[in-house]
Specification:
Blueprint lengths: L2 E9 L5 H12 L5 E3 L6 E11 L3 H11 L6 E12 L4 E8 L3 H17 L12 E7 L5 H10 L6 E4 L1 E10 L2 E11 L7
Antiparallel strand pairs: 1-3, 1-8, 2-6, 4-5, 4-7, 5-6, 8-9
């Protein structure tokens, strides 16, 4: 049976791409061996689903639509730069979330609960809202990278989260190719 590698995410608004690419360029001056995430692929993962049977995709999409029906759009602000597992031994470089973190976490939790009902497994690590901007490929120049990460100021960009995206991910030698399966709008906030 054919499967599609899938995840659910909030993609970074295009207006913030320049701020992230500027940050990536600044960090690349460290000389560290980093594979940068392309601007069009920048996203906040809400839940990784893994390989989904093609025949199940309509049911998953329907479950996602139902579970976010009561969510309103919200503002999300970019915050500080960090690394997993830590700044001294960076493997994944990320940008955190300031305001909007609670709403993003709540959205992820609701989706995770709905996907559990669809027989998808929960992530045992728990949810940590972040935007992956690069992956460290080797130990070359990690000290210089650490110094640049330490000197990074908080980011200030913000966006309105108006939709989630159910996305197919195809892994290729040149990097991941993301294709939207379904774009699901959130409710607009009530006017005061």
């Amino acid at each position: 049976m054919d499967t599609v590698r899938c995840f659910v995410a909030v993609f970074l608004h295009q207006s913030l791409h320049r701020e992230i690419t500027t940050l990536q360029k600044r960090l690349s001056h460290s000389g560290a061996d980093i594979k940068w995430v392309e601007p069009c692929n920048l996203h906040f993962t809400l839940q990784f689903l893994g390989d989904v049977e093609e025949t199940r995709i309509p049911a998953v999409s329907d479950a996602l639509r139902k579970c976010v029906a009561d969510f309103h759009s919200f503002k999300l602000q970019l915050d500080s730069v960090g690394a997993f597992p830590n700044l001294h031994n960076p493997r994944v470089l990320w940008v955190g979330v300031g305001s909007g973190k609670e709403q993003l976490t709540s959205l992820s939790s609701t989706i995770e609960e709905a996907m559990k009902m669809q027989s998808f497994k929960r992530d045992k690590r728990g949810y940590s809202p972040h935007l992956t901007i690069g992956r460290v490929r080797s130990s070359r120049n990690l000290k210089a990278l650490h110094e640049r990460l330490d000197s990074c100021i908080k980011l200030s960009g913000n966006m309105e989260v108006r939709e989630i995206q159910f996305t197919a991910s195809e892994l290729t030698p040149k990097g991941a190719i993301y294709t939207p399966i379904d774009v699901i709008p959130l409710n607009l906030p009530c006017e005061a």
